[in-house]
Amino acid sequence: MSSAAADGVGYWLRWQVFVCAALIAVPAAVAAALLPRLRRAAAPLRATDLWVPCWARLHPGWLLGYRVFALTAATALLVRLLVANGLAVFFFYTQWTFLLVTIYFVFATAMSAHGCWAYLKKDFKKADESHEFLSDDVENHDFSTPISGERKGDEEKITNYHEKIANEKRAGFWGRCMQIIYQTSAGATMLTDVTFWGLLVPFFYRDNFGLALVTDGMHSLNAVFLLIDTIMNNMPFPWYRMAFFVFWSCSYITFQWVLHACGGLSWWPYPFLDLSSSGAPLWYLAMAIAHIPCFFLYWLIVKAKHTYFPRLFPRDYVTTS
């Protein structure tokens, strides 16, 4: 039984509880205050960024196919874990994150499917005219230039593709939600995997619990699924959306605290969350700081993609700028 259950109210009156509460509240407050200001300075998200690949020669159907596969695999892993362990698996941040990754692929698959359907429908109706990529009932956008016209030189086709992307209008509400979930999942996935493989396995879990195949898979496939999608998709990755990553982690910690305060859980899923130790504030501070390199690690991956892919594949790669 944890100290929280044994000590009752006294557990929550310790000095370290108030320090840890500040370490949760202050980052969340700062993120909430800065988010509106930073968002106004960011470039808008285009509608076709949600489902058109960053590779000019790659049909959107390939991205749709991958997203269907990733969604199916992620759902199968979650269902298997739920059948074996029940809803108790969601006591862990890992399962919260993996569920968020799965939700991202629900959004991504739906956007890709509707986009491809609208594109093909327009292509069949007006094969020799301009194509519209996304109908108004999805994102309220229309487009004026084709992705590919008649048979011209490869360079002219790529130029037309760039002009097409540049002239598009902004994504709608659900498109922005998809981007937020994408970036939150990216940061949470990095934090989950780094914490699990770098901290929990070497120092806490290996001797006591061992490593199950499904658990290993979740701490590896979550990043693999997102990274492959990142290599293919054309979505920007503005750094200010780290705020939603902070909100996500604060929500999980709040959930754990409320669960323990109400007596709904008698043990801490992660030993460093236990507030009974005088070193708890240091653990909470370390985990708060860890959010910065974890998020920017993924940001750097996307930045490297936009920096080096145009140099390596100048005739094929389409930047989001």
From TrEMBL:
Record-given protein name: Uncharacterized protein
Transmembrane segments: 12-35, 68-92, 98-120, 244-270, 282-301
Keywords: Membrane, Transmembrane, Transmembrane helix
Lineage: Eukaryota, Viridiplantae, Streptophyta, Embryophyta, Tracheophyta
Cellular component, GO annotation: membrane
